[in-house]
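Can you please make up a protein's amino acid sequence together with its fold in token form to help me picture the idea?
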Amino acid sequence: MATKISTVLYLKVGVVTTTKVGNQKRKELVSGIKKYPVSKSYLTKTGFSNDFQADLLHHGGENKALFLFSKLTYEKINLHFGNIFDMSNMAYFGENLILDEICEKDICIGDILNIGQTQVQITQPRQPCYKLSINTNQQEMTKFIFESGFTGFYAKVLKEGEIAKNDEVFLESRKNFNLTIEKLNQLILNPMIDENLTLEALNCKDLGYQFKNSLEKRYELGNKDEQFLAYHT
């Protein structure tokens, strides 16, 4: 029997926009990160029908069709940055949904959730990149989210349908009880804090291949791993 775990507080979609960037490394940001609240939207296998991404190599696609964020996580980030982010307006972190009551410690890889008319399955944590620093106008934001684990999480779509603001979120099933989003975010920082759990994650068929590839490289190279340098600055 499905259990109610949360409610959709905000639903956000957006188009690709271009933002001028005043630093030496990049002249502009072309991205779909600036999403805005709507009352409802139809979720397809590759995302909301009126939501768009610019970098399809790293964003969107069936494995990252839906990006979920937590009200609790928003509040933790806000506490660190002086309460400057209004979660009810533009998506500072590119989120599609903001949920109440649950956050990274409450969601596991492979969890199946019923939201509105849809059914989705959690695939991986968000892997933060430099766009978060640009979109929030906070130079340290990407590094802060990577190190804090306040990432949010992605899902793939098992059943298409409409999602609306205030829809209830139900946990239909869970099988990877050890692999919470919170723990995976700790492992990507240092896979050796729990090697057995790292190996469990690498052998988990439900873990998104993008995150799994990053974790495997981190595990194999240790301190020599420099995969995040380009995307964090």
The chain has a mean pLDDT of 95. Helices lie at 71-80, 131-136, 141-148, 181-189, 195-202, 209-221, 229-232. The domain at 3-175 is CATH 2.40.33.20 (M1 Pyruvate Kinase; Domain 3). The chain has one domain: 3-175.
